[in-house]
């Protein structure tokens, strides 16, 4: 497993609830009322997977960039 995780947000799916930015403010911010990852690659951090798990429309995808394995949501 790679040392870092890849963070992606599907802005078409995002409904701008802000839950991710509230759960992981170091990793997500709302830009034009849609979530945007602040860093596409991050060191493993439970706040990132928590944010992906709490998104009501599953717009956040956390993957291992070396294997493509989905880490959250599961
Ligand atoms: S939790 Fe999901 S729907 Fe809400 S702002 Fe974040 S990505 Fe968008």
TrEMBL record:
PROSITE patterns: 4FE4S_FER_2. Keywords: 3Fe-4S, Electron transport, Iron, Iron-sulfur, Metal-binding, Transport. SUPFAM superfamilies: 4Fe-4S ferredoxins (SSF54862). GO terms for molecular function: 3 iron, 4 sulfur cluster binding; electron transfer activity; iron ion binding. It comes from the Bacteria. InterPro entries: 3Fe4S_ferredoxin, 4Fe4S_Fe-S-bd, Fe-S_cluster_ET. Its cofactor is [3Fe-4S] cluster. Ferredoxins are iron-sulfur proteins that transfer electrons in a wide variety of metabolic reactions. This is Ferredoxin. It comes from Catellatospora methionotrophica.
């Amino acid at each position: 497993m790679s040392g870092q995780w890849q963070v992606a947000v599907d802005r078409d799916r995002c409904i701008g609830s802000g839950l991710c930015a509230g759960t992981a403010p170091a990793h997500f911010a709302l830009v034009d009322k849609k979530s945007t990852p602040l860093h596409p690659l991050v060191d493993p951090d439970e706040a990132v997977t928590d944010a992906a798990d709490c998104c009501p429309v599953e717009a956040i995808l956390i993957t291992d960039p070396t294997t493509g394995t989905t880490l959250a949501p599961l």
